What does this fold into?
Amino acid sequence: MSFKIFQINEEFVDVMPKEIVELQENATWGNPKRGVIDLPFHKELIEEHSLCAGCPEAAALRYIMASIPAPEDTVIVNSTGCTSLVFPHIAMHTIHSLFGNQNAVASGIKRVLEYRYPDRTKDVIVLAGDGATVDIGLDCTLQSFFRQERITTICFDNEVYANTGGQESGMTPKGHVFKMAPKGKQFEKVPMWQIAIDSGCHYVARLTVSSPKRVESVIKKAVYVAREVGPTYIHLYTPCILEIGLNSDQGLEEMRSKDKERFEFFEYVSPAAAEIIEKRKAEGLL
Amino acid sequence: MSNISAQEVQYNKSGQKIVSPDYLLFEAPREKFFMTGSEAVKEAVKRASVDASVSYPITPQSEAAHLIGELWVEGYVGVYFRGESEFGVMSEVAGCALAGARTITTTSGPGTLRAFENFPMWAGTRIPVQLVLMARGVNAPLSIQPDNLEVGFLLDTGCMIWYAENAQDLFDMILAGFAVAEHPSVHVPVITVVDGFFVSHTREAIMLPPEDIALPPYNPYKAPMPVIDLEAPPGRFLRDPFVMKSNYISYATHASWQFEVRAAIERSRPYAKHYLRGLIEEFGNPDAEIVFVATGTAASQAKEAVRLLKDEEGVDAKVVKLKTIRPFPEEELKVATKNAKYIFVPEFNVVGWLEREVRKVLYKHSDAEIIGTPRVAGGMTMPAEVIVSEVMNNLRVK
It folds into this structure.
């Protein structure tokens, strides 16, 4: 529909919480050119997140929420973990279903929305942690890629099961000591970005969230390509400063150091995706 | 809506005339066909204005799932595809229903268990998905044969559980299932159970209404939970998982939410009673002191045993067939077993989940002896003669 569904009944405006009124008056609805540049000037779609102070995941969510081209027509399917702590604070349609089934739920939603509204654009984005995306949910993640579902999958990789207290995950680098891997992880970090390419994603990006502008760029490309071509995948490094022993002001530094290492910016664009990206650039949307 | 010609005729997306559930189930002229239970599923889905279905192969439900795929090709179903596993399928189905689709899927035995985490999630998100469960044994050891142990596992998932005896029951129950599950005051999933092979693969006579009429399409805006189609404001429940707030208000909310799911099942009683013509069906001498309480094909076999007992042993007996297990027809069962001295519960599983249910409901309400026999499993059949000899042996011992 439009952002109108978020509008407050006039008679209730005076009794509504300030942040809800601000959402109506000063958030960036209905403007595909919205982006991280709006952050200081407009009401954000995320309100008082409940993550740890200085958590890079919070920064990532803020940049993503600011960059989604049509938040009023976007569903976000999330999963269990630290990311799910944030969704109660987001002014968008979000769904938490189970741990690991996010791409399956998103597939059902996307197909039915296309069936019910064939002439409309409604984006479906999956946003989940590395445990949900690559370990417990790998089957559903990859199968949605194989089926060429037109959804964007965003993985917040903090290289650990953070919300449950710091256990090793498939994305933990080899040798790192975490709970459940007391002798250090015995196998290599899963190259999920490469698996995504091999599984049929048309746009894949790997990056840290050290650069808000870059996050905006990959989010917009991924959503536009998913709309018209097929599955897209974004792999973001959002370190858990708590579990790797950093202070709340050290997240950005950590990400910058990994920009030069295992999270060096990497982008894959299929020929079909390249066409869409060029088109959107010509339209001034990228 | 019985006099459809007197009203403006409306059509669904497949071009079928929209009629009321009452007209479709009770008033439309019916013609006799000869078909399997799987084919009966197709005929029901064809007349149900179904928006979406997701499938996965497992014996014995595969054929029903293929046939729904044929309906998709023919334009009777909007969305159809094969999922990756039953876990994935039941999540995909949830996505379809959350986005406002009338959704149906099918599974069996190990597939049910693979999917299990989804069923309480369906109930908790209040989606009126319909699952046609063609019951089959669960591993290990491997079995593909009829056995309904899995139904015992499903009883407390927050889904309605209905049990069809034969292809006719299954056809009518699938249509009634949508009408009841989607009622705004109910709006929980319905699992329509039928015994695998005995019904899915067996041809029998079935009366069908014309194929150019169908149920009214699902209206997601009547749902008690906001549909996720971006045409309605976001729902707080999905945005606010209660686990995220560690305080007593959130604990109490979570608890009351679960009570409310069970209460919704309770509220389905009058609608189920109407569309199923009662939650139970009785067969035999109403005053008999020997009563069989059964579901599905165990009820069919018990009916046959009632005939044999009368003809060969001169013993009066009756069958109380339960059409719904959730909600459980408590009052109906108490009344139907008023005169009972012996209540036999024949079942196709080793644990006797139905016997447990019957005992719980009749505790302090009946002086009858409740006997959980015969009990067969793993694909064994339940010949009426076996039921008769179980009854006679028990009576002789007394």
User: Anything to note?
Assistant: The mean pLDDT of chain A is 95. The beta strands of chain A are 74-78, 93-96, 123-129, 152-157, 203-208, 232-237, 266-269.
